[in-house]
Structure formats: structure tokens, C-alpha cells
Amino acid sequence: MDLERRPDVNYFFRHDLNRVYGSERSLINMVNNFNANWHLISPHSFPSGIEATHRQTRRIQIPTTSSAIPHPADLIQVIDEIKQHSPDFLLFDQPGPYELTFFLALPPNLRLRSVAFWRSHVNIAHERPLNQPVKNFLRDHRLWPNWEPIYRYFGNHVKLNLVESISVEKSLRQIGVRNPIATVPAAIGREFSPELRFKSEPPIREKYLDQDEIGVLVVGRVSPEKGLDWVLDMYKDLRLRKELPAVDSLYKRINITIVGGANSVYERYRQNLQDQSYIITRDTNHETLVDRVRLIWAGEKSWKELQEYYAAFDIFCMFPPKEGFGRVTIEAMQSGLTVIGRAKSQTTRELLSKRDYPVGILVNSPQQAANEIISLMHDVDRLDRLQANAVVYALTEYTMEKAEASFWNALNSINSS
């Protein structure tokens, strides 16, 4: 390949780019910022955030479930188009049955240019929350398909596998992927920064928090693997506290807000969690300090609204027991929040332990997380230091330039192997 020209990259994905979750934001950043001619193949329409200058295939309208495969006529048309322009690379994002259909239809010379990009874990075991009955756990996961044989086949037949964390690489090795794996940074730019936090007039904080509230934020899809049971346990623990900061403290009350929606598969799961939170609120109403701790289900928000939540709140909670990368953690730190993260998650440990200065707090239980929130309410100077450190770390460690250089170095290694 001539490295002086823009490489042609075919990109297969099933993400709906009209939604604002972490994987979708990373994908949009790659297409808009990495210097290539992107040829996008997806069952979804593209939002205005995708630049019109990029070449795109026609949109293949198929069901968007993970088990969907394209219609044979669509498959033939796309494969013929790929053969005609012979791309430098074919990139398959978190490949499943849909992507495998295209991969198997490729001629051998194009399979040698194929790369799988794994953004989340591929081994499907989930941890049952301690307070969740087994029957409920099985119900919540009954529609979770086991694609491990497909993941293993894909990982062992593409030329290269890309991951965003050591944790995802470990999950690929655990299911038997032997082919090369390269770790590349997530495509995070400066779309989130502390600027809105400090320069908005009136202060953006006033839109979401009362003057004496410390803001505790949770962002992510509502699904069983996201650790939201910890959030409810933390909420209950705080509601039962006999002591909170004194009336002369800057922060006297706590606002816990959950931002994120559930897809149709997990809508019942979301409703069950919300019902549990209402029961906690009802059952703790006899306590004397409950009016100083509240929990809000904010639902799914737009990109602009998400920026405002990041700018308004103080502490970000990252509680999944395992996480592919945790982009929202970096976005929160870029926006000026400190992070309380679950120590069991390898990715969260990596994100919060890379520097020799503290950028967040690792905890081993919801009760310990509640203790840390109370501690930060008492010690605002420590909160300020953690927030400042988090901004410096996130804005220097994660840049689009570093992500792009690492991405092309990994892909160009295909041609030299």
C-alpha cells in the first residue's frame, strides 16, 4: 500500500450512530478524524455527525438484532462493490453473525486484509448480584446469545484483532483466539472538557443540582452487566446513614442521577431496577436524614445534554464488574469529575492507576463507595485535587493524535507480516 495516500477502509458495523453511547462515539470519532476514505456498511441510517465527504455504501435495511444476517441480494451487491474498488483494509466492528456473513463471502485476497475490532468482552459469563434471586438473574440473561464459537472463528481467521484494553485481549485469549492482537487507544478527542463547567453563565450546575447538593453521576446503558445493583445498594446505604456533613458544610445533601436508557430486550430489567429504587425510598422514609439523599432516573439523553450532565456533577461512579474500555470514565474525567470505580474491574483499575498521582478512588463494595462520597463531602479540598488531577490525566493521556497513530501503526503491520 502507498502510505502517501489516504487508505481505503471498508467498515462493517451494527451500532446505531444516532445514539450517544461510548462505542458509537468512538466509531464516529474514527470516521471523522482518522485520515482515510471510509466506506461504511451498516443496517442503520447515519446521523449528521458523520461527514458527508466520506464515501458510503447504500444503507442495508435489515433487522438490527445481533442474530440478523443480510438478504442474499444485498450481500452479493456489497461484495461485488468491495471487489471492484479493492480496499486496503476491511474492518469488522465487534463482529457477530451479520459480519461473518460478509467475511465468508470475501475472496481469499481480501480476507488477508481483514481486521476485527473488539470493543467489549467476548466471554459471556455474567456475575449475579448478591441481592438478586437466581430466577431473576436467569430471566434477565435468557436472551443473551452465546456467540463465542463465532467470535473464536472470526478472531482466528482475520489477519489482526484490535482491542482497546488488556481486559478485552484477555477475554479473546480465554475463548481460544490465537491470532495477533494489538491494543490501540480509544478514539477520544476533546469533545468533552471542563470549559462548560467553569465558563457557563448562569452556572450549568444550577440546572441539575441544588446549591447544597453534591452530584453523583452514573452514565451508561441500562443492562445487567453495568453494575447498577451497586448503585441501588449505595443509595440504600446512604439513605440509612445516621450522620451526614454538618449544616455549615458546603455540601449537605446528595443527588445520585442515572443517565442512560435500555433497549427493548432490557426494558423490563430497567423497570425492575427502577421499582427496586422506589421500594428503597419507601422503606427508608422513616429515617431522619432521607430528605438529604435522592436518586433520579434521567433516562437517555442527547449529546448536548450529556455534556451538561458531565459539566454539572462532581463524582462519577463506574461500577461494572468488567468493562471493555469504559470510555465514559475518560469523558467524565475530561469534564472535571473524579471517579469512584469498582476495583474488581481490570479496565477500571488500569484507568485509575496509570499515574503516580491520584485521579480517582477504587472501592470493593457499595458501602465503601458510600463512605468515599461522605468523605469527599467533608473534605472538599481533596475533591478539588482529585478533579484537577483527573482533567490533566484524561486530556493528556487520551488524544485523537495518539489514537490515530496507534491505529495506523497496527493496521500497517499487516502489510509487513
In short:
The protein has 417 residues and is α/β, with parallel strands linked by helices. 42% of the residues lie in helices and 15% in strands.
Instruction: Give the number of DSSP strands.
Output: 12
Radius of gyration: 22 Å
Summed over residues and divided by their number, the pLDDT gives a mean of: 84
CATH fold assignment of the largest domain: Rossmann fold
Helix % is 40-55%
Shape: elongated
Low-confidence stretches: 52-66
Question: Describe it for me?
Answer:
With 417 residues, the protein is α/β, with parallel strands linked by helices. 42% of the residues lie in helices and 15% in strands. The protein folds into two domains: 8-188 and 399-416, Rossmann fold (3-Layer(aba) Sandwich); 195-397, Rossmann fold (3-Layer(aba) Sandwich). The protein has helices at residues 22-33, 72-85, 97-105, 108-111, 134-141, 148-157, 166-174, 195-199, 205-208, 228-239, 267-283, 303-312, 327-334, 346-352, 366-378, 380-397, 400-416, and strands spanning 8-12, 37-41, 89-93, 114-118, 160-163, 181-183, 213-219, 253-259, 293-299, 315-318, 338-342, 360-363. Residues 52-66 have low confidence and may be disordered.
Write a concise keyword list for the protein shown above.
417 residues; Rossmann fold; six-stranded parallel sheet
